[in-house]
Amino acid sequence: MPAATRTDPLSFLSDQLNDLKSKGTHFRLRVLDDEQAPVCTFDGKKVINLASNNYLGLTTHPRLREAALDATRKYGVGSGAVRTIAGTMKIHMELEEKIARFKNVEACVVFQSGFTANAGTVSAILGKEDFIISDQLNHASIIDGARLSRAKILVFEHKNIADAEAKLASVKDQPGRKLLITDGVFSMDGDIGAIPALCDLAEKYGAVTMVDDAHASGVLGRNGRGTIDHFNVHGRVDIQVGTLSKAIGALGGYVCGTRELIDFLYQRARPFLFSTSHPPSVAATCIAAFEVLEQEPERIDKLWENTRFFKKELGLLGFDIGGRNTPASETPITPIIIGDGKLTMDFSRELFQEGVFATGIAYPTVPEGKARIRTIMTATHTKEELEQALEVLENVGRRMAILG
User: Fold this and answer.
1) Residue range 82-100: average pLDDT?
2) 187: annotated active-site residue
3) Active-site residue among 92, 167, 178, 246?
4) Last-in-domain residue among 256, 271, 295
5) 246 catalytic, yes or no?
6) pLDDT per residue over 346-402, tens digit each?
7) Residue 175 placed within a domain
8) Cis previous bond, 196, omega within 30
9) Catalytic residue among 113, 187, 329, 348
10) Which of 3, 27, 85, 350 has the greatest number of beta carbons closer than 10 A?
11) Catalytic one of 61, 98, 139, 215
């Protein structure tokens, strides 16, 4: 007898993909053919790159390249185990000590990514009897970590200190720990968290404070030390999270705090316990990156010079770059708010065809009606490249009736 035809049990995924396509928000991955640089080649097309998190251009810095090659020759290409078994190499400890000194804290632990640093930390330190008071626009990794912790989650309106206090006050007499958590720089709008005021609240109500500085590391503060340094709230933020994959130019995430916090995460953070540690080349690259931050502050100066120029010109062209119905950007992340998801993705595709790579972002990454093109400046863009990108943005924007 012929075999019965099997019904595809994953056919529901096709229905959902078709729905995305009908809404015009389905995307395909752009493939980079060469180096991550201000001008590079995606899908065989040379474009001005406004989509990268490579804030300081460190992905191709000669010192970082050489550090990676030297470590590979000396230690090989992999660590061979998780950190808690046989995968903690001396170079991993050197990186953690380097970051701790840089961030002015007692200790640091490196995770495989910024996502696992956030999710692994929140889920490790809290349980179902605890409370998380979280900014409405916090990163997905914080949201996932909060859910994994099984703690009770109270979300306060974005940067609304009165609402945050109301949430804290509502549970102040409840048993359990309270964690007050915010992004340092919010990744979609580019605004900076209300950290000093949140520190005041935490001290008033006895809450633990946690800041995700993924987009502030290497960007804000002295030599890129982040928002805690930017606001001079050293000693008032209990848990600092950062990434090694944005301004640092490589891969990974880290958590900084007291020695007891880091020792506890060694014991209980599941991504740390169950993931192989970084290749030695990555650890060496990150060490070199922090040395560059200390020794080449002009890179951060150039990043901010480019940021100020680009924001000003986008605003003069008439683009909505935040501040009308969304938070105003204060950092190298500058959104161009379009609103409609399909129009946004079409705009992104047209820009690419004209030689500018700027990513369209729509629901569910941002709320319905808040779709945008997210642009990010780097220290290595030239004035000529930015002027050319602005010309393309204006021409395409007028052609598509995004600009009047």
Assistant:
1) 98
2) yes
3) 246
4) 295
5) yes
6) 999 999 999 999 999 999 899 999 999 999 999 999 999 999 999 999 999 999 999
7) yes
8) no
9) 187
10) 350
11) 215
